[in-house]
Amino acid sequence: MTPRSPGRDNRLVSTVTFPRIVATDLDGTLLTSTGSVSPRTRQALRAARAAGAEIVFVTARAPRGVQEIAAQAEATGTAICSNGAVVYDLATDEITAISPLDPQAARKVAEALALALPDVGLAVETGRNVLIEAAYTRRIEHDVAFYREVDSVFGVDQPIVKLLALSPSRTADEMYAAVSDTIGDLAEVTYSGLEGLLEISAPGVTKAATLDRLCRERGVGAGDVVAFGDMPNDLAVLLYAGAGYAMANAHEMVLAAAEHRTLSNDEDGVAVVLEDLLGRAA
Predict the structure, then answer these.
(1) How far is it, in rounded angstroms, from Cα 265 to Cα 188?
(2) How far apart are CA 232 and CA 54, in angstroms?
(3) Following DSSP, what letter does each residue of 144-208 receive, concatenated?
(4) Which among 18, 67, 105, 140 has the fewest CB atoms less than 10 Å away?
(5) Backbone angles phi, psi at 174, to 5 degrees
């Protein structure tokens, strides 16, 4: 499925002032490989805010996964989480909007997954917790406290913010190729890593669509957005923004499609671009 980019008709980059929104992915983008915000990046974000920009995290992470990062980055505004399915207020620790996958559609997606990937294991991100079936063997250390083991992810009355599909025998690229056409318009299918994990959201729910809605609420055009990302789930955001930058460490699909590139996450690639833009706007 080709990433959809709302607002592309209004992508002319502003050359007069500093962008009004800095939309950035976290893992592999803003964060170093150790999962931290470097001093240089923190300073660049501080300078961007001083120039009038709003920093918006646009991440696959659930809200619980962004609080520590927000503290490091000195961010207190809005985060777009769970690939666009959740809008989260960093200052109040409140989920202000949620766009879950319809349970019946999710069941149909699960059936398609099982046919194409017999060893698939399922989990559901609810926004605050993760429901996991026995075959879903992926464990993230800092998330273990939020896991709840269930016989079936469809037997619990919780919102399906993201349906997670894990295959121990395939890469995410291979999984995507195997199921994307079958799932079709039932859901949005993407991924944010190379391991065998797909992330599935409600139709039309993407990072870019939610960012577009946030921009419209603020009266901001796409041309006043600068964006950064590294994985296929970031691509629509990079295409939406007036200036979308792929990290040097980005997935080959992202590198091939993005108009701009910057240095890797471990080379402060986000900070390098922001410093340059700040210099031009001075």
Answers:
(1) 27
(2) 24
(3) GGGEEE-S-TTSS---BSEEEEE-TTS-HHHHHHHHHHHHGGGSEEE-SSSSSEEEEE-TT--HH
(4) 140
(5) -65, -40
3-state helix, strand, coil in the chain (%, to 5): 40, 20, 40
184: left (phi over 0), alpha (psi -120 to 50) or beta: left
Per-residue model confidence as pLDDT tens for the chain (282 residues): 445 555 544 444 444 479 999 999 999 999 999 999 999 999 999 999 999 999 999 999 999 999 999 999 999 999 999 999 999 999 999 999 999 999 999 999 999 999 999 999 999 999 989 999 999 998 887 788 899 999 999 988 899 999 999 999 999 999 999 998 999 899 999 999 878 999 999 999 999 999 999 999 999 999 999 999 999 999 999 999 999 999 999 999 999 999 999 999 999 999 999 999 999 887
State the chain's maximal CA–CA distance in angstroms. Answer: 58
Helix (H), strand (E) at residue 111: helix 103-116
Q: For CA atoms 60, 175, 239, 231, give the dihedral sign.
A: positive
Q: Which domains does the chain have, with CATH numbers?
A: 8-99+206-281 (3.40.50.1000), 103-201 (3.30.1240.10)
Q: Which of 66, 19, 89 is nearest to 47 (CA)?
A: 19
Q: How many CA atoms lie within 13 A of 209 on its CB side?
A: 17
> Residue 281 CB: number of other CB atoms within 10 A?
14
d(CA 46, CA 56): 13
**Bridge pairing between strands 147-149 and 162-166:** unpaired
Angle formed by the axes of helices 103-116 and 172-183, nearest 10°: 120
Amino acid identity at 198: L
Question: pTM, whole model, 2 decimals?
Answer: 0.92
